[in-house]
Amino acid sequence: MNEVSVVVEAQPATESLRRRQSFLPRLEHWVREPLLHFLLLGVVLFAAYAYMQRGRGGVESSKQIALSLDDLRTMDMYFESQWHRQPTPAEFQAMVEDKVREEVLYREALAMGLDKDDTIVKRRMAQKMQFLAEDVAAAHEPSTAELKAWFEKNSNKFALPSRYSFRHLYFSPDKRGKNAQDDAAEALAKISSQPEDSKLAASLADQFMFQDYYGDRAPDALAKEFGPQFVVALEKLKPGSWQGPIESGYGWHLVYVDTVIPGRIPAFEEMEPDVRTAWLGEQKKQAWQKAYTEMRAKYTVLLPAPPEKGAVQTPGPPPKKQVPAPSGEGPL
Prior knowledge:
Strand order of the largest sheet: 2-1-4-3
Distance between the termini: 129 Å
Number of helices: 12
CATH class of the domain at 161-261: Alpha Beta
CATH topology of the domain at 161-261: Chitinase A, domain 3
CATH architecture of the domain at 161-261: Roll
């Protein structure tokens, strides 16, 4: 009985060992299989991505408002520039909360679609696109040789205008009426040989509301004060004597031109900073135009068809005529 029982119990153990020995080679084969490695790696990456999407502390990243150290420094510097002191902890916390409030309202507005069909938002976004396109040009630093070559082609843009220094006598139409021009001509005959600071000349004219003497003035500045026609006449006068009369927006004038500094084109070295600024402005303009042309080419603009030539609009029904009601009755 004992020998039989031993044999019977040994059979299951032997079978289990045989199964284990046949499974191990298969397991080793699967462990070495590249497809299994790929699947396991995918599972790990998916789990890591899902964890990261949850954000810090189990909060979704879309619900996080992360302020960087640079953001905090900027707020601190802004406060100091405004108030010339460091903010208190309470003031700094209020600035942080203002920043958070702005971001919260911005995100909620986007979620509600408030940015759609908003002219101001569209204009701001279009402006930022233009700034981005222009920044490409600003990233290039021109060499001196490059600026010189550009200056030679565009030197007229930097031409310095003529400058005038003169004294004038004013004859007011408000005081003299239609005789203002004739009075000025008569005064010129008396003082034509008089010096610039002649007391006789001053005694013949009316008081001017601004200056009697203008020194080293450009035509543009004089045109704003006296009018373009005055400047055109002034440019024809020769220095060293009383001349006129010439008309301005105020009345009539006799003018003694003291000095004239002719206009000229300056040397590159005099204008290099201005040349660089003008060059950069042109590069930005060209970069923007190129970028817009490329973007514009992606779109087709659909406009409503014009009305057909000769088409007659169908008139509406004619207005009903009011028929007078018989005496004592209401309108029909």
